[in-house]
Amino acid sequence: MTKTARHAASSQPESFEAASIELEGIVTKMEAGQMPLEASLAAYKRGVELLKYCQNTLQNAQQQVQILEADMLKNFSTSGIDDR
Questions:
Q1: pLDDT in tens, 31-81
Q2: Collapsing DSSP states into helix, strand and coil, what is residue 68?
Q3: Looking at the 3D structure of the chain, how many domains does it have?
Q4: pLDDT at 2
């Protein structure tokens, strides 16, 4: 692997979707079992980086949804709704 390729491999993904696609590719290659040890270790390291990125992105999205839902629940009024 060249210096440029290593740098590109450890860069921040453009988006959650890009990270997910790259991670799927790594998993597919590793499951094939045809990678040399050094390449497998580098792929594993990149996979961990991508997984952390995806987990953080999902956690941030979940927090944003919770904030939005909390705001919507505060503004929700039950006046005019029949209690059955």
A1: 999 999 999 999 999 999 999 999 999 999 999 998 888 877 666 555 655
A2: helix
A3: 1
A4: 44
Q: Would residue 82 count as lying in a domain?
A: no
10 secondary structure, DSSP code: T
C-alpha of 82 from chain center: 43
Q: What is the pLDDT of residue 6?
A: 47
Q: Is residue 61 part of a domain?
A: yes
CA distances from 28 to 3, 4, 49, 52, 83 (A): 24, 23, 17, 19, 55
CATH of the domain at 62: 1.10.287.1040
* Torsion sign across C-alpha atoms 19, 55, 4, 2: negative
Query: Is residue 5, in this structure, part of any structural domain at all?
Result: no
Full domain range(s) for residue 62: 14-74
